[in-house]
# Entry
Amino acid sequence: MSAADQTPPFGHGLVLVRGSAAASARWVRRGLAAVRVVPLQGWTGVCLAEDLAHTAAPYDVGLEILAARRVPTRHRPAVGLFVIDGCAVVTVQARGWRLEQRWLVWEPGTGVRRTPDLPALPAGLVVDVAGARSRTSGAEVSEHFSDPDGDPLDVLVGLMRLLGLPGEDLLRDGADESHLRIDPNPRSIAAFDALVAEESAHRKESEQ
# Structure
C-alpha cells in the first residue's frame, strides 16, 4: 500500500525545528496559519491545523504558507517536508545568522526538478542539517532522489528514514486535537494583507 493512499484533511506537511514546543509558540503565533506543535525527539514538529491560512486569497494556501515560513536563528536548523501540487518538496534552513531557505523539488516521472526562482538544496546540506553524517551521506541522499518513479509521500518518508528524522506519523497523518493548537496573531495577518495590497497597488500604477 502506498503511503499516500489516505491524505489527511490539511495535506501532507511537516516542519521540524529545534527547541521545545513551548519555546516555539511565540514564533509560530507570528505566522499566517493555524498550526499544531508536537514535541519530538530532538525536534519540535509543526503541522497545519487548518487547510487555509488566515490571509486573503490567493496567499491563503496553508501548505505553501507553511513551506515558505522563515525560521528564526534560535529555532534552526529546520527541515520542511511537503507534498505540494503532486511533488515532494524539501526545505532546509541551516543554523547561523544568515537566513537562507533552500529547496528541493521532486516530481513523479521527472525526478529532481530545477527551480530557478528558489535556491537549490544540496544533498550534503540535508545530511548536515539533520545531523545524520554518522548514518548516511550526501551521495546516498542524491541516489534516493535519482529515481523518477514512485509517490511523493513515499519519497519523503524514505528520506526521513534515511536521515533518522522523527515525525513520520505526523507527515503521513497530521497532528490530532490532542496536540497544542496555535492560531496566528491577527496583527500579523493584517500586516501581511496590507503589504500585499500595497504591492499590488504599486504594480497597477507602474503598468499604467
